[in-house]
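In response to reviewer comment 3 from the previous cycle, which asked for concrete evidence that the modeling workflow produces usable outputs, we include below a single protein chain processed end to end. The sequence was submitted unchanged, and the resulting structure tokens are shown without manual editing.
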Amino acid sequence: MNDIRTKAASRRRTTIGMAIVALLFACAALHAQNEKERKKGASSPPAHSAPPASHQAPANAGHAQPAPQSTAPPVHQNAAPPAPQNTAPPAPQNTGQPSRPNPGQFNRPNAGQTTPQNTGQPTPQNPGQFNRPNAGQATPQNSGQPSRPNPGQLYRPNAGQATPQNTGQPSGQNPGRQFGRQAPGSPAGGRQFGQPQVTRYPNGRPQEIRTSNGGMVHRDMSGQVREVHTPGGAVIMHRPDGVRTVQVMRPGNRVIVASANGRGGYAQRPLIIQNRTYVQRTYVMHGVTYARVYRPVTYRGVVLNVYTPVRFYRPAFYMYAYNPWARPVIYNWGWGGSPWYGYYGGYFSPYPQYLSPTLWLTDFLIATTLQQAYQERMDANLQGGGYPSGGPVGLTPDVKQAVADEVHRQLDQERAQGQNMNASGDAPPMFADNVPHVFVVSSSLMVDARGQECAITDGDVLQLTQGPSNGATADTVVLASKGQDCRRGSVVSVQLQDLQEMQNHMRETMDQGLADLQSRQGQGGLPAMPPAAAGTVDSPLAAQVTPDQNVAADLSQAAQEATGAEQDVVNQSAAADGNAAAGPVTISLGQSIADVESINGKPDKIVDLGAKKIYVYRDIKITFTDGRVSDVQ
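The workflow returned the following structure tokens.
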């Protein structure tokens, strides 16, 4: 009996022990499972944690290093998620590539913005250029701003737009000649300055150098300085003909554009009449002050300031100026002893006789343009022997006839505008009519000739054969040129704003010519006009337009402010580039005459052998064949 009890107790202890062991194993397994899940959970980010740093890298930070993942703040720490517009793929017009293949121009990314998306660095897709998003688009951020005032032309922002989006400051989207600026006291352009930045041409020469304090120097492919931005906001432009202009912004949406010596230029401001916005410029030229008005028009995303006369002539006078004269007129202009006429004597000569007022106005237009160009050269103390009679073919009869046909069209347009001066609404610019137009260049500038830079100067003639097809630019054919590189027949791409300024100059000069024609009628061989043609008719704008005061002082002050600051920026840019910008620039085969003159200046002597020319300097002789360097001794 006792043995039975002993065996039963032993079995119970064994069963209990096995149960305890099984329980221990189960607890251990459960603990291991929990530990495994805990470790797995610790290695995975919570559902509300920040996305990986690869999704937070700035869209345009071409050279920035991505931050480590551990530094990305989670959303619950008030870090705003990326805005939708910064995560979407870029629009086609903002690919980071320049808007047109012009090595002489350059684009800039949203200057004035300090967001991570805009670091001020060139985009990786286009290290030599700067991104220009939606340039010239009349968006709220860029309302009424032109896409690019060109380096040779005077500054043309649409300061007439008196909206909160357009404070008169150039917008950040507008590259090159408009410059986004913060309120006074902040760094110029709103950029955060640090290390200098250098962008180079394919040949290794510096194209654009940004200094550590916010200055900028842009050079062309030959090494010539074309544009300088000072930290204080002044912009100095060096035109291909050597003339220099200064552009500064002033409070009240005013823009001051002055010659280098401050003796000429204009002040631009908004002008609002009957709830319509215009742009008024007060010009000062050698002591003479006058005002002109322009109507802002947006065409293909580009804002154009279109010249708007404030007074017109009577219908009978337009008939007198529009139709041929009964007999040819021989007219003595009295230019024979004028220095400008001798300077351009190989390029331009007037008609021997005039069959119509249109031909008379054509010579008035060309002569006035060349005379102003010569005066600008004299004001800038530029020397030169003038246009040689053996140079490229100048204004041939067929070119002058093309200019005369354009004068006829513009005269007809003004006549129609005068008959309908009270009409409301904005007429489209002349680019919209898809009719060939001819332009007389009113200010020298660098243009793109199929990927190569070349210069067109005052008095050159271009033809637009069809409407613009490239957005802010149009392809034109050179009909006449004084230069060696932009030759007759070349196709050059020109900004619409530059073409509009040329047309403005034509209309403005034609109005001067019409006034002279009316005052001189019946004199010097000019036929007398009918009595009903006398006098002018004021438009509703005339009473509201008066020249601004103290513009001459503003021009002088702007020029003085820019003079010292420009040299400081140029010196800093040379240091930033390791003195490469200031080092010697070599003469190489294939360079144009303009390239060589930009490096060595004018020669001591020129030996003209027709297609071959030899430039003789003190220590070097350079031979050109068909306008290109063929030998250096």
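The chain is about 25% helix and 20% strand. We consider this sufficient to address the reviewer's concern, and the full set will be provided in the supplementary archive.
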